[in-house]
DNA sequence: CCGGCTTCTGTTGTGCACAACATGATCCGA
DNA sequence: TCGGATCATGTTGTGCACAACAGAAGCCGG
């Protein structure tokens, strides 16, 4: 992690929150895992008090849940709620292009190009989900630049992060073809990049929507074969 | 406020959070107003520590913002962000009927009937925005029962609360016809009730959408005349 | 009279000790 | 041997004292 000790006190809490968000979304902390306030406070060189403030925010965001006398746990999502989120994301995907769209800046385009390159270079690593999770996580952040509607994009980012971490988690817990999933995602990034380079935000949104739909379908299919 | 001292410790924080949410949404605390941690802690008979945890959650929800050495303030929203939220709500209004709609239970219908009755009985009170704000706040809560998609309805409720408190606030700060606005809202509730009684959730959503649109238009009109 | 510095006051942020609580291990009696 | 109460341990929740900080009032030198 980045060193945060040198930061001014006001920003330190934000940096800490971002760090914990990353660890949860990048599956350093698995769904259901217990987080020790004492250990985390020690690791970051602070007392429990400011750490607890950060955990309270994460609890408000639905990423962790604390139980008195038991522990603080990374949240899991029931299948039903996951389905609800997917249904919602299908609709939201189109809204990004419809509400306050911003023509992608050269900066944004180059970010997408780097993402595409990383997607092509990504090789399946059965032992660590982190490279794939990292790529998706960065993709989510960059994608949030495509609309100026901050409330919408913040919400979409949140939902995407929730599904992404659970998707990657169950991906590694099952016998799905990891290489194939990586290839599909890399293809999505490239397709979206192509649409963006022609300035067609709506096409980019449609492509994204299609991939959300397909990803959800594959997830449900595996869920059925397991039960 | 309800007495919370007798509640078990775990729920007390939740009750406290709900209470502060209400006070902000019901305009007991105006946008921009400073909240004193010490005073609030005294009022609720607790120390600053658990209060600060609640404030941290509210800060995560965007209802308050703390500045080191200065104070904790109820958030205000820039006109631009308010417009973004309204644009978003126009789209979300239809999603409620489209995603995981639930046929309104008799319980829900009777709640809507009581809301309609309160709307008819509501008389403009230029001195206190609380009765109107209370009615809208309750309407928001009941409306959230119309879809089983919890993430969607939670988000919609949050956005609605944000616009509602700022709408009521500017309503009382301007010379708009208070009685007319109340009549319009009461009419909306009755129209929605009528649609729900025929089981037509989509019609109810369309009516709501229309009122969101009109409310936004009136808000913008007054904004122009003031500047 | 004025500009800059200092001091003072009130606020949020932090550290630490202890209370409240849940859970599993242990002990004891039947 | 078994059931239940009791205790031991580790966790989150709370209270309190103090640090860090921002802002305003006051002071002092020019």
Automatic annotation (TrEMBL), chains A, B:
The keyword Cytoplasm does not apply. Keywords: DNA-binding, Transcription, Transcription regulation. The keyword DNA damage does not apply. CDD domains: WHTH_GntR (cd07377). One of its GO terms (molecular function) is sequence-specific DNA binding. InterPro entries: AsnC-type_HTH_dom, GntR_C, TF_FadR/GntR_C, Tscrpt_reg_HTH_GntR, WH-like_DNA-bd_sf, WH_DNA-bd_sf. Residues 10-77 form the HTH gntR-type domain. It comes from the Bacteria. PANTHER family: TRANSCRIPTIONAL REGULATOR, GNTR FAMILY, UXU OPERON TRANSCRIPTIONAL REGULATOR. This is HTH-type transcriptional regulator McbR.
